[in-house]
């Protein structure tokens, strides 16, 4: 060490280091480098854009369905096509949009919020994106070729089994599940390792931003929940391809096994989508209320409790299947209990706003919209948790209304808030505030016009998943109203796309921290440099950037090769300088091999065996350890 | 380079189109016409009467929905009672590669519609033609001759045979029976 | 305001073992995922068992001999595994090489036994739900066996080609951790496949 | 604005949700009425909680109108409002707990009462769902007392009816909102559903579990009748189909028996004994055709026979090519099956 510490960073040194770090961490423009990149920001950007494209596509499907349902006895879309539409809508929204986009935003933000230079397993991260992309593209090509799955996003057997779902449609669905879950599980592992091991020195667990807490809980939930659906879909595809009998009652199987496995995943899935959104809401509320969050510890507890309770209530999707009543009462209680942590969090956000100095800009508008809508969805959720009431409401439009209030209100509104909030960090420019307000009000009103009437439709007897309905049942005008609302939502999303496209070029330049926020991602430039942070920040309080100036940082990570600082899991004490993986094309090839493996096994069961060979070869090439010779060169001065 | 790209794109296109054909669910199509269904050669052991190939008929044995419907009607019209699940009982087995009256889909269609000596009744007028085509396609799949990616696997029933997806294909051409069973 | 540099991390080590290493957490994450799969598959086994009597439907549980041989060998393999783990932690190159080679051979032997074990199941996956679930369980475990064996093989080859740095020793230790998982996960599956049907009689 | 919307919504609830032949809140049976009470309780409790949230939120927004240029509150726990807010949070959580307790308890007792209702004097009916129709069988004292019908359920008012639920192919769900909640029909399992109708009238049930192509057109006509009318109906259902009387009906009868129709459908008292399609013995006495796809009328029946795949695409009734006069004859015969 040449100079005594502490000292001010020297501008000349900063310029020199910037050049060297950019060489070390940067991604070039060639096709090869783009395919081989392991920069978490680039991967996350691709992830976000891909997932958003899927959102728009699934939205178009929703509009088609709404147009079909606008009037009774409509013949625009035949039942086979309609069934594919709603299956693809649900599948795309749940598997290709909601979970991936939450994880994608986390892949972008978590390393930045932790104050580290890259995500824990960069190559795994790149692989995850490619696998997700290939899975999504596969199912959409199948759909456009009239081989889209038609048995619902839940694929209940026996309808989805070999006897009643002929062809390859459901097989594509089952393999799409495998693709996306592999991707999601990989990201979950990366996020856990990043959050636990790569937090900036001083960021103890008690100082972690709520978004990081939310992602930590979510990632653990992914790890426990997603295997269930992978197992279930593997059973399904085995039944369909090689004639196993998991779901064939005559040979000892049982259709309800599917439902148990599916909902053991399916219900936590909702919270896997919802918890990251809560983390985003907390970040935004703190920034725009300009007050630390009210009851931080309780908020953390609420997240953890929600995560735990989420695994105790899958049976409330199965009240009508004739399960024993006493058991069902348990699930009623468990399902209702989840209202306690949710209610606490709602209170804490409003209290923070109440006691803070709020600025009502677009992100906060979306958060307020979230509260208004989500709470209503939560309350109808309490109703659905009641066994007798559920027997009337289950599988009706009431449920459709409920979960759109919960998922659009609880996830899409926060997501739009997040887009407006972090867009400056992603791109260096702000989104237009004027268009943002239009975007919000159109969405908010359109949403309620679309989905509020569905509550009534459900009570009036309209079941879900019907491609048409008879005239004279009193459902006509509400359905028409709902369709008009859906068009408003469509217009609103279009407006957002216009806003994003314009602001990318002409938006107001943002600067490092345009909102005066308190978390570490705002401590670097917008957009962040390839290496994220030149000096590793030191965290001295819960709201890192609201601590007294000057900011404290550490030096000593090599600028010449890829190193990240690992800290201890609880107290975040600096521990080792861990090597971070170089770019590699092998994750891409592994993903290609995996895609061939999965898709081939739809058509030929033997591919399960031979298809694994190329994957193994690619994996070995990817994971081959760096020889000591290279390591020594690297550490040499 | 470009030509190779084009070739692979074409190949991809063909695969996808095959997917289309396999997955269509036609509820409302006209049954393919068979003009020369006339009782001519009923002698068991004689050469099966050649039947003009009908391209529309071929679609049935490539279409998953039709084959699956055929399976349903095979049960509903009680083909089971004589042929069992394809292994044969009173009637001849359907899952081997021996066909007394020809194993092309058109020939199977004729056998169902016209009936055959020694017990196979004529179903003309009893089963609508489109359904006969579907049954014929299913019967083809039992011997492993329908499109492999279109045949159903096990049914939701007691296991009696290997799932059709696991049945190895038998020679496409029908052969004269070797002996009188 | 310019940031103030308050410390220097360049003197920290660049690799460490177990929970100090990033990779270890990754391995743990995957163990958690796969452990969940095993637990759920076991749950499916009991669910199906409750829906069919007798269990197994053909009343003959698989022969004990091969499965028990496998179990014994799998448990015995823990001795060299622990030994290799210690050698890696102590960064002893020669012992680590021997340990890895030994584990590769044992893995090979286990896979050979496993091949014949499939045949003693005495049922095909497409016979009935019992057949399906026992094949699924055995297949799942075999996938893990093979995966970890390939990993061990790669490390063995690498260790015999190069000298090892601490980061490589750490990789070896993580591989040993995963082998613990493969071994421990086998025990409940062994019980499900071989003993539960006998106890249900 | 928001207020007006809610008034409108409330009005619509009154108009649509509360009346109709397929409406959950227009209770015509014990079960639906009990669940309706639970709904009311839920609506009040949840509505009250929602109101509290909205008031708090509105107040927070209103309070904020002067706060624009203030500095951020970087240590919120030092705020003067911290303590009162904590108290309020405690109260709020307490309120949620009490509310949930009330609702759970209500749920539990109502669930018990529904589950433990007496069934010994219940009318036993076996309902089998298939893609995409309902087979309904009334068990009698003797095999020849068994009534088989399709896509209609007739119940005497005041008597509990215990439905035994079977499924032929995939999972379906039986739901007659005016009478009570739904229950799934699952292949390989037998479920049951108890309904106690209290008001005479014509209601409509519909399959509530997605079951494939024609899930949308799988309705069930439920009729609650006075006991005498029910007994008369039941007696009448036991009689074989009337013999065709006009020449046209006779020709229709011949077409039916010699064509594909008889392979799938049964008409008691005739050679037609197919079991895979709905029993047609008293077809003309039903309210609808093809599981509620069309109302019953001569013309609708003829349309259906001419081209079932246009009316209900994907169902298993094939198109049978008939000349117009044959079609009229067949329709005339079926229309005589009162």
UniProtKB/TrEMBL annotation, chain A:
<keyword id="KW-0408">Iron</keyword>
<keyword id="KW-0186">Copper</keyword>
<dbReference type="InterPro" id="IPR036927">
    <property type="entry name" value="Cyt_c_oxase-like_su1_sf"/>
</dbReference>
<feature type="transmembrane region" description="Helical">
    <location>
        <begin position="609"/>
        <end position="625"/>
    </location>
</feature>
<comment type="function">
    <text>Cytochrome c oxidase is the component of the respiratory chain that catalyzes the reduction of oxygen to water. Subunits 1-3 form the functional core of the enzyme complex. CO I is the catalytic subunit of the enzyme. Electrons originating in cytochrome c are transferred via the copper A center of subunit 2 and heme A of subunit 1 to the bimetallic center formed by heme A3 and copper B.</text>
</comment>
<dbReference type="InterPro" id="IPR023615">
    <property type="entry name" value="Cyt_c_Oxase_su1_BS"/>
</dbReference>
<feature type="transmembrane region" description="Helical">
    <location>
        <begin position="329"/>
        <end position="352"/>
    </location>
</feature>
<comment type="pathway">
    <text>Energy metabolism; oxidative phosphorylation.</text>
</comment>
<keyword id="KW-1133">Transmembrane helix</keyword>
<keyword id="KW-0472">Membrane</keyword>
<keyword id="KW-0812">Transmembrane</keyword>
<dbReference type="Pfam" id="PF00115">
    <property type="entry name" value="COX1"/>
</dbReference>
UniProtKB/TrEMBL annotation, chain B:
<protein>
    <submittedName>
        <fullName>C-type cytochrome</fullName>
    </submittedName>
</protein>
<keyword id="KW-0349">Heme</keyword>
<feature type="region of interest" description="Disordered">
    <location>
        <begin position="145"/>
        <end position="181"/>
    </location>
</feature>
<feature type="domain" description="Cytochrome c">
    <location>
        <begin position="65"/>
        <end position="143"/>
    </location>
</feature>
<dbReference type="Pfam" id="PF13442">
    <property type="entry name" value="Cytochrome_CBB3"/>
</dbReference>
<dbReference type="InterPro" id="IPR008168">
    <property type="entry name" value="Cyt_C_IC"/>
</dbReference>
<feature type="compositionally biased region" description="Basic and acidic residues">
    <location>
        <begin position="172"/>
        <end position="181"/>
    </location>
</feature>
<keyword id="KW-0408">Iron</keyword>
<feature type="signal peptide">
    <location>
        <begin position="1"/>
        <end position="18"/>
    </location>
</feature>
<keyword id="KW-0732">Signal</keyword>
<keyword id="KW-0813">Transport</keyword>
<keyword id="KW-0479">Metal-binding</keyword>
TrEMBL record, chain C:
<dbReference type="Pfam" id="PF00510">
    <property type="entry name" value="COX3"/>
</dbReference>
<keyword id="KW-0472">Membrane</keyword>
<comment type="similarity">
    <text>Belongs to the cytochrome c oxidase subunit 3 family.</text>
</comment>
<protein>
    <recommendedName>
        <fullName>cytochrome-c oxidase</fullName>
        <ecNumber>7.1.1.9</ecNumber>
    </recommendedName>
</protein>
<feature type="transmembrane region" description="Helical">
    <location>
        <begin position="128"/>
        <end position="147"/>
    </location>
</feature>
<feature type="transmembrane region" description="Helical">
    <location>
        <begin position="177"/>
        <end position="196"/>
    </location>
</feature>
<dbReference type="InterPro" id="IPR000298">
    <property type="entry name" value="Cyt_c_oxidase-like_su3"/>
</dbReference>
<feature type="transmembrane region" description="Helical">
    <location>
        <begin position="60"/>
        <end position="77"/>
    </location>
</feature>
<dbReference type="InterPro" id="IPR035973">
    <property type="entry name" value="Cyt_c_oxidase_su3-like_sf"/>
</dbReference>
<feature type="transmembrane region" description="Helical">
    <location>
        <begin position="97"/>
        <end position="116"/>
    </location>
</feature>
<dbReference type="InterPro" id="IPR024791">
    <property type="entry name" value="Cyt_c/ubiquinol_Oxase_su3"/>
</dbReference>
<keyword id="KW-1133">Transmembrane helix</keyword>
Automatic annotation (TrEMBL), chain D:
<protein>
    <recommendedName>
        <fullName>cytochrome-c oxidase</fullName>
        <ecNumber>7.1.1.9</ecNumber>
    </recommendedName>
</protein>
<keyword id="KW-1133">Transmembrane helix</keyword>
<keyword id="KW-0186">Copper</keyword>
<feature type="transmembrane region" description="Helical">
    <location>
        <begin position="39"/>
        <end position="62"/>
    </location>
</feature>
<keyword id="KW-0732">Signal</keyword>
<dbReference type="InterPro" id="IPR036257">
    <property type="entry name" value="Cyt_c_oxidase_su2_TM_sf"/>
</dbReference>
<dbReference type="InterPro" id="IPR002429">
    <property type="entry name" value="CcO_II-like_C"/>
</dbReference>
<dbReference type="InterPro" id="IPR001505">
    <property type="entry name" value="Copper_CuA"/>
</dbReference>
<dbReference type="InterPro" id="IPR009056">
    <property type="entry name" value="Cyt_c-like_dom"/>
</dbReference>
<feature type="signal peptide">
    <location>
        <begin position="1"/>
        <end position="23"/>
    </location>
</feature>
<dbReference type="Pfam" id="PF00116">
    <property type="entry name" value="COX2"/>
</dbReference>
<comment type="similarity">
    <text>Belongs to the cytochrome c oxidase subunit 2 family.</text>
</comment>
